[in-house]
Amino acid sequence: MRGYLKVQDECPACGEALHHQRADDGPAYLTILVVGKLVMAVYLWVFMAYQPDPWVMIALCWSLALALSLWLLPRFKGAFVALQWSNRMHGFAGSGPRE
Questions:
Q1: Residue 9 domain-assigned?
Q2: Which of 36, 65, 72, 77 could form a disulfide with 27 if both were Cys (CB 3.0 to 4.6 A apart)?
Q3: Where are the extended beta strands (E) located within the chain?
């Protein structure tokens, strides 16, 4: 990754062109799905175990959701690009099996 979410134009290790990748909205959808499930599980567990004040629950869940989203989003973007590369999708073309 060149920035937070911008994919480099080519792989620094092998020189593979990455400028044509098409990850688009898939990583964001997957991040929302995973973060939503994890945050709701923590929310329900904390509420049932401790019954804190609403402002504590809001602060806990919002900060957890923000931290998880910021950590997971670039990793899911990289996973989508890797999946496209391994399946030779969206310009990662070649002839024959991978060597």
A1: yes
A2: 77
A3: none
- Give, in order, the Cα–Cα distances in Å from 58 to each of 11, 26, 29, 63: 41, 27, 22, 8
Q: State the DSSP code for 8.
A: P
Q: Is residue 99 part of a domain?
A: no
How far is C-alpha 12 from the chain's CA centre?
21
Note whether residue 15 is domain-resident.
yes
Rounded Cα–Cα distance for residues 65 and 68 (Å): 5
- Identify whether 27 is part of a domain: yes
Q: How far apart are CA 96 and CA 99, in angstroms?
A: 9
How far apart, in Å, are the Cα atoms of 28 and each of 50, 52, 77? 32, 31, 8
Distance between CA atoms of 10 and 51, rounded to whole angstroms?
50
- Total of domains in the chain: 1
